């Protein structure tokens, strides 16, 4: 189990901006690795009501269950590593094997047995070090839609915010209000 503070800045991109950034940093779409996020909440959206999110992420043969809860400048992430069987047990509502996440959910008044899977989102991700942080270029697909996103993960909020704004300015990318992936996923699911 890990618990860490996640500080990240996000900006939606057009496909053209995404390709331009890939080219500028020497990457192309085939360099991306794919990860699948499976999102959960209760029928009455108790997690969303607490501005929290729960997912199982699959990267190749690796699985992790992460609960994100709001913090002053970002989110706290509580993550349990899972094997394939444990992930399948959670996805099929047989056994919630992510013990630390389960404990945190119970503290929030959300019994794990009340969780339902909301659906899945596939992200094709390229990430690399950039100015004391991690720059992430994502192409996500969900509910027959796709979007492109730039993320910058940092240790220091103020320094990271300035570097992110500088990057957007350098590449002539307008700053756009960017919801979290789960929020975009949920908006798209309402359109289905």
UniProtKB/TrEMBL annotation:
Location of the CYTH domain: 4-192
Alphabetical list of Gene3D superfamilies matching this protein: Hypothetical Protein Pfu-838710-001
PROSITE patterns: CYTH
SUPFAM superfamilies xref list: CYTH-like phosphatases
InterPro entries for the chain: CYTH-like_dom_sf (IPR033469), CYTH_domain (IPR023577), Uncharacterised_YjbK (IPR009195)
UniProt name for this protein: Adenylate cyclase
